[in-house]
Amino acid sequence: MATSARMVRSNAAPAGRENDSREAPRRPELTVIKGRRATGSAVSEGFERLLTWTRARSMPLLQVIVAVAFLAVCLLGSLALRTQMAQNSFEQTRVQDNISTLTQDVQDDQAKLDALQASLPQKAQDMGMVPQQGSISIDLSGYQPSQQANQPSKGAGQ
Q1: How far is Cα 118 from Cα 121, in angstroms, rounded to an integer?
Q2: Is 137 helix (H, G, I), strand (E, B) or coil?
Q3: pLDDT one digit per residue (tens) for the chain, 158 residues
Q4: Most CB atoms within 10 A, among 45, 56, 82, 113?
Q5: What sign does the CA torsion over 96, 98, 102, 107 have?
Q6: What 3-state class would DSSP assign to 5?
Q7: Quick one: which H or E segment has residue 70?
Q8: Considering only CA atoms, which of 62, 40, 42 is closest in space to residue 51?
Q9: Which of 40, 35, 60 lies closest to 50, judged by CA?
Q10: Angle at 31 between CA 28 and CA 34, to 5 degrees
């Protein structure tokens, strides 16, 4: 059977140093270590330690619970805001891509329209049309209808 090696410590000082130790040897602090139960879970043990810790302090358990709940709500709120910001960023990128695509389509259609308008006189001449030499305009701003147009016909009503 193998035994573990023991280490022996002595308070004896090397020669010439007997009077140099001015501190009195300190006693080690003792702490209580509770044994672990085989059936207890880590969550229940943690909760029991939390209860013991809060009872030993001047702060009541309710304040600790409120602080933890506040931190959890802040964390979830921050996560929700960051998720929404990322979603809005993707939506903005998609809309900008659609806008640039539509702008290119409008520019293409405008170029086609300009090309058709430029070729219109040549096509008209190819069809045998001649360009207009002079223009005639009629000004109707002083037009007065005749008296006969305002009166109903007498034969239609009888």
Answers
A1: 7
A2: coil
A3: 556 666 666 666 556 555 555 666 788 888 777 766 555 678 888 888 877 877 776 667 778 889 999 999 999 999 999 999 999 999 999 999 999 999 999 999 999 999 999 999 889 889 988 877 788 888 888 888 877 766 665 555 54
A4: 45
A5: positive
A6: coil
A7: helix 61-126
A8: 62
A9: 60
A10: 150
The Cα–Cα gap between 67 and 75 comes to: 12
Helix H or strand E segment including 73: helix 61-126
Q: Which token pair is 72?
A: 């959890």
Q: How far apart are CA 92 and CA 83, in angstroms?
A: 14
pTM metric for this prediction: 0.39
> Going by C-beta distance under 8 Å and a sequence separation of 6 or more, which residues neighbour residue 121?
131
Candidates 52, 57, 16; CA nearest to 34 is 52
Region for residue 130 given its phi and psi (left: phi exceeds 0; alpha: psi -120 to 50; beta: otherwise): beta
Residues shown for the chain = 158
